Every structure is written in C-alpha cells, then in structure tokens.
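Read as amino acids, tokens; as here:

___
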Amino acid sequence: MPPKERTRAPLSEALRHRGPSLRCATDVSRMATETTFESLVQLTHRFFWCLDEFRYDELLGLMREDAVWHRQGKVLSGRAQIRAALDERPRSQRIRHVISNPFIAEESAGAARMIAYMIGYRADEGVSRPPPQTIDGPLRFLVVETRFVQADGRWWIADQRALPEFEFRSALPASPASPAR
C-alpha cells in the first residue's frame, strides 16, 4: 500500500500586510503536498548554505535567470545583478543563516510561495579564522518569503525577500551615547 500523502495548510494574503488580522486559510483543496513542501524546504536550505559557503555559482543555479532578490534594502533583478552584489560580500566573514518554521502559504499549478523564519549569525574580524568563532549573539531575525516556480522538471527560486523583525542589541554598532560593546 502506498504511503498516505500528507498536506500543509496555506496562509492567507494577510501576511503580506503583516497586521493583527492574520488568519490561516483552511481551504484543504489548496494544501501543498509533502513532496512539494520537502522540495521547497530543501531548495531554501541549499540556497542559504551556498550563500554561507560563498558558492555563488551553485546559488545562482537555484534561481531563475530573471529572479528578483530583495536583499538588504536593494532590489536585485537577474542573475548578473545578484552575482555582482554577492561578489561585494567580505570573504573574511563567517556567516550562517538558520531557517526554521517553513510552511507553504500558497500553491497553484507550477508555483508556490513559502514563508519561513531566519536567524542570521555573523563574525567578521577582517581576517578569516577557523571555526569556532566567538560572537555576542545573533545578528537579526527575519521573515523570509520566497516565490517558487516549476519549470523544466524542477523548482526554481523566482523571487525572494527577507523582512527584518528583530535587530539584536549585541549586533548593533555602539553609538556615542551608549557604552562600547
């Protein structure tokens, strides 16, 4: 007997407005299959692993040619712009993006939108050092929204944005009015 197919519920459009009226949709006919969910989670994890490891060719290979990445206050359109921005990242930094709580917010034929949480950790003393690195705490907490499309027998990242929810005091630069950390 084949295994029972499990599903994940989508989230309503209210998430885009990020207000208190957030409600989960309950239309079970539009739930994502576990296979889709697992594929998109793996794609998202691979994307951020490639980013952390400076494996930019592999990262770009996960995105459509015309992908849009809303990154650090800039809108990067297409692989060339994305690559140029990635090449500006300091190679001395050790960074990790931890993804959690992913769910499929919308799914239709050949398209899906996933929401997840992300916590970023970074150490950069200007020189590369072997791990483990000592840091004061996380850099920030973000809500990541990724739109995927299916083409050529696989899923691609078409659009991604990460919206900051929390900045951690330990990661902020010291201001003249506050004590140095």
Observations:
- The chain is about 20% helix and 40% strand.
- Residues 94 and 123 are 5 Å apart (CA to CA).
- The first strand starts at residue 7 and ends at 8.
